[in-house]
């Protein structure tokens, strides 16, 4: 599984439609302070279902929508699409046999969110489901940010267990059990 590119429009500082390609091997994003490097990572976590404004460095969930600049008016919605290479079949679920999987999230000023898998409308849950156990999720270890390592080292045993369970691939089964028990 590999992230091939990300398309942003109206998301934080990326007001105009922007495509960021990720070539094989390694991609480094460099630029001066405030140019939008961290906003790209916020975009990835947002599409994967992040539901806390604080974790996206904002106060409200609609803060991810471009809010205007000296020479530009604010826009009405934010949209981000992630395109994954799924040749390995790592992403399971109804799209398991697809070589490419596109995941998209959209939000408008009313705070209405829409989610899409390969262009078809779906629930947030459908997206979080296919990534469970892959190590990639809004708060999973696939994304290591500043401070993540020290937080891991200092975490309580219960918090550490969540990471270990995700790495071991059992978190999706726990989630399903919780679901069944709640029915
Ligand atoms: P650093 O090197 O300091 O970590 P960075 O490249 O990671 O910087 P980001 O934090 O990604 O920078 O980008 C911050 C910029 O994004 C700020 O200029 C901020 O004004 C802009 N920004 C964030 N949210 C919005 C928004 N909703 N609308 C417009 N601009 C926004
Ligand atoms: Mg940054």
Strand order of the largest sheet: 2-1-3-4-5-6
Q: What is the CA-CA span between the terminal residues?
A: 32 Å
How much of the sequence is in beta strands? 15-25%
Mean pLDDT: 93
Radius of gyration: 17 Å
Q: Structural class of the secondary elements?
A: alpha+beta
Domain RecF/RecN/SMC N-terminal: 3-136
Function: Required for chromosome condensation and partitioning.
Family: Belongs to the SMC family.
Subcellular location: Cytoplasm
Structure report:
This protein has 183 residues and is of the alpha+beta class. It has helices spanning 37-47, 124-131, 148-154, 157-168, 171-182; strands at residues 2-9, 18-21, 77-85, 100-108, 113-117, 120-122. The radius of gyration is 17 Å and the shape is globular. Bound molecules: adenosine-5'-triphosphate and magnesium ion.
